[in-house]
Design brief:
The protein has helices at about 5-40, 45-80, 95-100, 105-140, 155-165, 170-200, 235-240, 250-260, 280-300, 310-315, 320-325, 340-350, 360-375, 380-400, 405-435, 445-465, 480-485, 490-495, 495-500, 505-525, 530-550, 575-580, 585, 605-610, 660-670, 680-700, and strands at about 625-630, 630-640, 645-650, 655-660, 675-680. By secondary structure, the chain is mostly helical. The chain folds into 3 domains: about 5-200, no CATH class; about 240-265 and about 280-380 and about 685-700, no CATH class; about 405-605, no CATH class. Strand 1 and strand 2 (about 630-640) form a beta hairpin. Helix 2 (about 45-80) packs across helix 6 and helix 15 (about 405-435) crosses helix 16. The chain is flat. The two termini are about 40 Å apart.
Length: about 700
């Protein structure tokens, strides 16, 4: 981020806070006036009393609320500048599983949050779009990312909700304040957004462009997944209906259905009255459950990540699931329910296929057809069929994997654990070497060699020494791990032209031992010969220059380097790469890790602070991805991650195992050669969409 843009953002946030100190008291005054006006218009006594109570409470707490609101918003801006804090809840972040864990008060707060956001969205959409575009550009983004705007409505509303929660007022008063003051709040925000957008424009910040990131099923071309951006506003899609617009299913109703009194884990048919939540009749429970199932299956049917033929087959399960919902209205919320597990397993396996010509597709399609036929069979034992169908499906999937593939996967896991152990130890060796006083004085290619391949050599030797019993005929100083570190003084000294040229006898004596030990160490990890010889040639040229320099001439050494030393790539021996299916052709650079590089124009600490969090932190085990390899996309799933999260194992649909490092995974994502297809399961995504539909319905009420 350019310093001028950074200053523009800081000034914009300061102006926003200053402007907020002006309009918050004004907004509260407008709210008070509106309540007073409605008080005179309402005839019904109970409603009038409620409005009077809300007005009196506002008079009592107006200054306190204003101060808390501004303080909460100020804290959110500081968190944004530090890239910390809890992200504000949005429609996209709504999760089905979270709803069941919420208390009634949290659900009500979420509904109020959604309703206020909807009003602001309608009133301030155009000005917010303009501000998002300029704010994204000021942050160095070529394309608009609305989530990067620290002034977006959900952040403001979240600060308001935080302020309200700290006041000694009941939920009814808080709800009336929000509903009555939402329009005025939206108008104030619209004015602020317009003012700030013009301010950024006056400072020369041009708007960033809008585009829609291609979906996982977008067809690829060329050498990766990149497609031409389509000019659209992502914000225009955020509050569109997800699966329909039936207003029956609200967040409150869905929450009541999920927290019904039915005992969790009970899969037997029960009297629907046992699952009735307070205030809900048996009929309403059945209707809500049926609507959830209908929306859930519609979401699966519209999930383009699945082949259309598979989606059509899965639709055949809907009648049985609707029938099950009458006796077990919460089966879809229980991850251990056999019906939920069967649907989850089928949809999960369906992600493995990108074409009907893929190996194993025909057999899997036949299994789904058999499951649908079994569920359509007449009889009163429907609920008892799901466990047996699930067991048969799991058994067939296990039998489809060849024993050799199971053995290969076990070997891959063992190999990756060992590789991670050595790489972590190599990081400590790097710290030891870099802490030496003479380290910074040597040429860059020597430093990079020591921090790269040689740290792996030392780590490998130390692991072997720890695993083996001490030899009675070998002194500690003769052990490889010791000798590989003992040559450092001579190597670093001989690499300094000014010093080495003054003492030829030492140079002549040290060179053979250093070179012999270096070659021995590299051979111990089976390091490739080409980069090895490149290093040895550069080192011998340096030694030759020191030897040929006349004694009466003292060539100046280069000043101590402050150049950033890139963290070495995790290293794999060829046999380890073969055993783990390592994607070295995609991950490894063509140049050796210790090749000469250009001096950076900026301090690495500044650059690192601006970098986003590693991609791999958001790719948990179970994620399905497409990897671009040999001119085509390879569908595979992350099935294992090493204990420290530095190595990942992928399983291809045909059962093969592939692996890559965390850094390689991040690099492929950055190069658009790896695309996330499904981070969560298809069923989870469908249920999350149901929760978002309930959010939308609640916001529209």
């Amino acid at each position: 981020m350019e310093s001028s843009n950074s200053q523009a953002i800081d000034a914009c946030l300061t102006e926003a806070l200053s402007h907020m100190r002006e309009w918050v008291p004004r907004w509260l005054s407008t709210l008070h006036e509106t309540l007073h006006e409605r008080e005179g218009l309402v005839v019904q006594l109970e409603e009038k009393q409620a409005i009077v109570q809300a007005r009196l409470q506002l008079e009592r707490h107006r200054e306190w609320l204003a101060d808390r609101f501004i303080d909460a918003f100020s804290a959110s801006l500081k968190d944004a500048q530090r890239r910390s804090g809890v992200p504000a809840r949005t429609l996209r972040s709504m999760r089905f599983d979270e709803l069941e864990l919420m208390a009634d008060e949290q659900v009500q707060e979420t509904v109020e949050f959604a309703q206020v956001q909807q009003v602001i969205k309608m009133a301030a959409d155009e000005t917010l779009v303009a501000l998002n575009a300029r704010m994204s550009r000021a942050q160095g983004l070529d394309r608009v990312q609305s989530e990067a705007n620290p002034l977006r409505p959900e952040v403001v509303v979240a600060a308001l909700m935080q302020a309200l929660n700290g006041l000694p007022v009941n939920a009814a008063v808080r709800s009336r304040w929000l509903k009555t003051g939402a329009v005025a709040l939206a108008q104030e925000l619209n004015s602020m957004y317009l003012r700030l957008s013009d301010l950024l424009g006056n400072w020369g910040i041009v708007p960033a462009g809008y585009n829609v990131i291609p979906s996982p099923h977008t067809r690829f071309s060329g050498g990766g997944f990149s497609g031409a951006p389509v000019p659209m506003r992502p914000e225009s899609l955020q509050h569109a209906p997800v699966l329909g617009s039936n207003a029956l299913l609200t967040l409150d109703h869905l929450h009541q259905l999920l927290v019904g009194s039915q005992e969790p884990g009970s899969h037997d048919p029960v009297d629907p009255s046992a699952a009735v939540a307070p205030g809900m009749s048996n009929g309403m429970v059945r209707n809500l459950a049926a609507e959830v199932v209908t929306l859930m299956m519609r979401g699966i049917a519209e999930d383009k990540r699945l082949l259309s033929s598979l989606r059509n087959m899965l639709a055949g399960m809907e009648p049985a699931l609707l029938h099950l919902a009458r006796s077990d209205p919460r089966f879809f919320a229980d991850r251990n329910n056999p019906a939920r597990r069967l649907l989850d397993t089928v949809t999960e396996r369906s992600l493995a296929f990108t074409s009907e010509q893929n190996p194993g597709y025909s057999a899997f399609a036949s299994e789904i057809q058999g499951i649908v036929r079994a569920l359509h069979a007449p009889g009163a034992d429907l609920s008892s069929r799901f466990p047996s169908l699930l067991e048969a499906l799991n058994r067939s999937q296990s039998n489809a994997i060849a024993p050799a593939q199971v053995e290969a996967r076990g070997l891959a896991v063992q190999t990756l654990v060992r590789v991670e152990q050595r790489n972590l130890l190599a990081e400590r060796v790097v710290a030891e070497i870099a802490s030496r006083n003479d380290f910074s004085r040597v040429p860059g290619f020597v430093r990079r060699f020591l921090l790269g391949p040689w740290s792996q050599v030392v780590a490998h030797a130390r692991i072997n020494a720890a695993a083996q019993s001490p030899s009675p005929n070998l002194s500690p100083s003769d052990a490889p791990a010791s000798r590989y570190m003992d040559i450092l003084p001579d190597l670093l000294w001989s690499s300094q032209l000014a010093l080495a040229s003054r003492n030829r006898p030492r140079l002549i004596k040290a060179i053979p031992i250093v070179l012999r030990t270096l070659r021995e160490g590299l051979e111990s990890i089976d390091y490739p010969s080409e980069p090895s010889e490149t290093f040895f040639q550069a080192l011998m040229d340096l030694h030759m220059a020191a030897y040929k320099t006349p004694r009466n001439e003292t060539p100046p050494d280069a000043p101590p380097s402050r150049q950033f030393e890139a963290t070495p790539e995790p290293w794999m021996q060829p046999t380890e790469a073969r055993d783990s299916g390592f994607l070295d052709d995609l991950v490894m650079d063509a140049k050796p890790a210790f090749a000469e590089t250009q001096i950076m124009q900026r301090d690495w600490a500044d650059i690192k602070a601006e970098m986003p969090a590693p991609h791999s932190q958001v790719l948990p085990v179970g994620t399905w991805v497409d990897v671009w390899q040999e001119g085509q996309a390879l569908r595979c799933q992350i099935t294992w991650a090493s204990p420290h999260g530095t190595m990942f194992l992928f399983t291809v649909a045909d059962g093969r195992s592939l692996s890559m490092t965390r850094r390689g995974l991040e690099r492929l994502l950055d190069q658009d050669r790896l695309r996330v297809v499904a981070e969560n399961g298809v069923l989870d995504a469908a249920l999350d969409a149901v929760a978002r539909q309930a959010w939308i319905n609640s916001a529209k009420q």
